[in-house]
Structure formats: C-alpha cells, structure tokens
Design a protein that fits this description.
171 residues, 4 helices
Length: 171
C-alpha cells in the first residue's frame, strides 16, 4: 500500500469512492457531503494544485483518497475556540478523506494520517488541522485516537458548522 499524488486518470476511481462515501454518510443520517460537494471540479482542482492524494494497493487499485496541503485554510482563520498552534504558522490540512467501501475498517485512514504526519515532520511543520461534521462520530473517534484535540467550531465557505481538531506533530 502506498500514498501517491493523484493523476487525472485517477479521477473516475476517486469520484466512485467519494460518491460511495456520500451514500454512506446519508445512510447514517449525516448531512455531510450532501450538497454537491465534493465534486469532480473540486478533485480536478486539487490534482492541478498537487493536493490530491490516493492510496493504491499492491494491485495498483485506488482504494482511498484525500486532499492534503500546507497552504492556509481560509475557513480556519475564524474559530469559536482556540487552535493549539497559532493560525499564522504553517500547518497541514486534510480534507475530503474517503475510503473505498470494500476496504473500510482496515486501518487505511490511519495509514493516510501517518503518511501526512511524516510529510509534515520532514518539512519541520508542527501542526495538522482537520474539521468534520458534528455527527460524523467515526471520523471524530479516529482523530481522537490519533491524538488530535478538539479546538472549537469553524464554519465552511457555505456556512456549515464543523468541529475543528488539531494535532501537534512530534519531531
């Protein structure tokens, strides 16, 4: 299993994973990703900016996707609460993390986080920030297990409330 930058030819597999994740969230009555986001245009933009990543298994099959960047997240400038590391310092951000349904519960999300943590360590960046829907208890459980701490509430660009978490990366 390896984490690599996404390529244009990965878009159909990425969209299949994202659309399946949308159905999964809807089946749990979670209102996350139910408004047309993320869409193919967003994924194409992530690929152009070298922010989109996929996990490929030993058969070279795309089994997960995520956006990762060290560019500032505009919606993180205002938080009802406090970040651990000042928002003005460089930090990592994860968005749009989804696992192919047949591969869920196999530690792939944790693998992705660990890979991004290592990339931040390699760049001497000491913080990774993430937000999630208040009803997405599976993601909240994972990030708490990985040592993230709750920092407060942020609002997306479309004014949706999200719980914000941060992990200080140890060097």
């Amino acid at each position: 299993m390896r984490l690599v930058l996404s390529k244009t030819e990965d878009i159909p597999a990425i969209m299949q994973i994202i659309n399946d994740a949308k159905k999964h969230l809807a089946s749990q009555k979670i209102d996350q990703w139910q408004n047309g986001y993320p869409n193919q245009e967003q994924i194409e933009n992530d690929i152009l900016k070298k922010r989109s990543h996929v996990v490929k298994n030993d058969e070279n099959q795309v089994i997960a996707t995520s956006m990762f960047t060290v560019d500032p997240e505009p919606t993180y400038k205002t938080i009802e609460g406090d970040w651990v590391i000042d928002e003005k310092e460089t930090y990592g951000v994860i968005h749009r993390l989804a696992i192919k349904s047949a591969f869920r519960k196999n530690g792939i999300a944790q693998f992705i986080f660990n890979e991004f943590h290592q990339q931040l360590k390699d760049k001497n960046i000491k913080s990774l920030k993430i937000d999630t829907h208040e009803e997405n208890t599976q993601m909240q459980a994972l990030i708490k297990k990985l040592g993230y701490q709750y920092c407060g509430i942020i609002y997306t660009s479309y004014n949706a409330k999200r719980l914000a978490f941060e992990k200080v990366i140890s060097f």
